Request: fold
Amino acid sequence: MSFLSLSHISKRYGAVEALHDVSLTLSKGGRLAILGPSGSGKTTLLRIIAGFEVPEIGTVVLDGEVLVGANQHVPSHRRQIGIVMQDGALFPHLSVADNVGFGLERGLAGRASQIKELLVMVGLDPALGIRSPDALSGGQQQRVALARALARAPRLLLLDEPFSALDATLRDTTRKAVSTLLQAAGITTILVTHDQSEALSFADQVAVMGEGHLLQLGTPQGVYRHPVSKPVASALGDAIILPARIAEGMAQCALGPVAVNDATARLDAEILLRPEQIKLTAPLTGTIGTVIECDFAGPFCAVTVRLDGGYALHMRQSSFNAPAQGARVGFTILGCAHIFTV
Ligand SMILES: Nc1ncnc2c1ncn2[C@@H]1O[C@H](COP(=O)(O)OP(=O)(O)OP(=O)(O)O)[C@@H](O)[C@H]1O
Ligand SMILES: [Mg+2]
Reply:
């Protein structure tokens, strides 16, 4: 049985339909990442689960308890749901320790040691407890916000772009630390993020939203390799989308014949290749093109190749063997191309 179940959630703000008939389930201990363009309804969905917003239609059931339903709305403070927003939102007038202990009773025996344990749990030195939040780095503040959410032993943890204010390195280490911590504690979590690799590496389920609709829900590998539509493919990473004619398990496209993963007979379709499936080779046989741009970006170069047929392909190549501008190149395709179903 699912631990969290959202059924047919719709929410309007005046003329804006922020959510349209969204249904999804999450198992206990599961980790769901929600991706989607700005304004697609991600925060609204979290706010409905947390109890800060009420949908016009739909139900929310957590661990068998109806939180939202017909004539039913459990107030947010009774839901035992932890939430960490994008900016951390610590109380500036409280010390770090009092922020963490905010949800714990004042006179509770062992309160101070529990706060210390929570700080250690999120990878912070308990000595930081006496500081004021503004005397911490952005990454440290984010961890304090997480410790504060964990202090109340939430049944469900909601993270709304919690790492977006951090620089790339800190973001990576904080994300890994948090991910390990949540996995070890078996806490059911929903993470909203704009970062595709963050979503794919953090979650066991990924939901892709677009204009208030849930476009696809699946495993990270499933949604990345087999997106149902172009918007889903693009939400998850760089996508090379080519018109093709399909016959006998092969797609005829601008790159020549490419194997496809779908044997269903159909003539015209659009196929998806991820840039990492395309390897540049010497221009010996098959489709050939000319490198028209090669932008150095450290570990890789962003290479644009104009095929002799006229198509321009954008891909990444290791910066150690990237071709020079003007070079003639051929192609090898790794794996199969994917055909969209929608
Ligand atoms: N309180 C509100 N009043 C009016 N419209 C709102 C309100 N909150 C959200 N919206 C609108 O609902 C839609 C969904 O907003 P939401 O904040 O859920 O998007 P999001 O996917 O979280 O976007 P972002 O990635 O930018 O955070 C947007 O069109 C937004 O303008
Ligand atoms: Mg948002």
